[in-house]
Structure formats: C-alpha cells, structure tokens
Design a protein that fits this description.
Elements lengths: L3 H12 L3 E3 L2 H15 L17 E4 L8 H5 L4 E4 L9 E3 L2 H10 L5 E4 L5 E5 L5 E5 L1 H6 L2 H7 L2
Antiparallel strand pairs: 1-4, 2-7, 3-4, 3-5, 5-6, 6-7
Length: 151
C-alpha cells in the first residue's frame, strides 16, 4: 500500500500541481499555532484534533471536503494530516489544488490552514467537514450547510 506522501507526490506530478514540503521548523510553528488557537483549554495536544476543537462548525456530508476550494480560492494553503498517517506539511497554491490532490489519494483525514493559521478546516473518517476560525462563518453560510440543516 502506498503511503500518503507517495500518493501526494504522484498526484501532484500527474496533475502538474506545484507543491512544497515545509521545513520541519515551519511545520512545527504552524502546528503549535493551531494547537494554541483552536484546541479547548486543557485538552491534550494529540491528533486527531476533531474532538478537541473549540468554537467550530461541522457538517456530515460525504463530499463536503470539496467545498474547501470555494473558501480557500487562489491563496496559499497548508495541507497536513494526523502525524501517525503522514508527518509532512505541504504548501499548495490554492484550494483547487488541495481538492484535486485529495481527490487522487485514498480516503484520509486531513486538515488545511493558511500560513497565518487564520482558519482551520478538517475532514475526518466520519465524512465530517469541520471549520474553525475564519472558516466557521463561511461554512455556516454555505448553501450545502443551509440545505443540510434547513437554515
């Protein structure tokens, strides 16, 4: 079975998508910023993050992960995973790039943020998309969210 890194590199090559693996120190800074901003006070700093987030919005629609391209648009994005699945943090140029790559790899839990960690989006094994920070109101106002929850 292919590991996630191999799948991502193969997909980016196949789709001609530029990506960079962040240096360990930069990846660690992003991870710590996310832990500080989005985890409940006093919660363990372990992955997966989904059960430990405070102030988030979530939806259980199987293809909702594809919606993230609409939020991120054409701004740089950091894609990362539960460390036991994949340790690297990947920088991509747009939300479309993230969606295209995730569409090519096997079902995995993943997270995305920007370089300033202004938001955190995640998609888990239960097919739930979660949004924190600047992404929360976006998800709440998304047509798919409104349709699901009749808002």
């Amino acid at each position: 079975m292919w590991d996630i890194k191999e799948q991502i590199l193969t997909a980016s090559s196949k789709l001609d998508i530029e990506l960079n693996i962040l240096p360990k120190e930069e990846a660690e800074d992003i991870k710590q910023s996310i832990m500080n901003k989005y985890l409940e006070e006093g919660m363990s700093r372990n992955f997966p993050l989904f059960e430990r987030l405070h102030d988030y919005v979530g939806i259980d629609v199987p293809d909702s992960w594809m919606w993230i391209a609409n939020f991120i648009k054409k701004t740089p994005v950091i894609l990362f995973f539960n460390p036991e699945d994949e340790k690297e943090y990947y920088r991509l140029n747009s939300g479309e790039d993230v969606v295209s790559i995730i569409d090519e790899i096997f079902n995995v839990e993943f997270y995305v943020t920007n370089l300033d960690t202004e938001y955190l989006l995640g998609y888990n094994h239960s097919q739930c998309l979660v949004a924190s920070g600047a992404a929360s109101s976006w998800l709440e106002n998304h047509e798919g969210y409104k349709a699901r929850y009749n808002k």
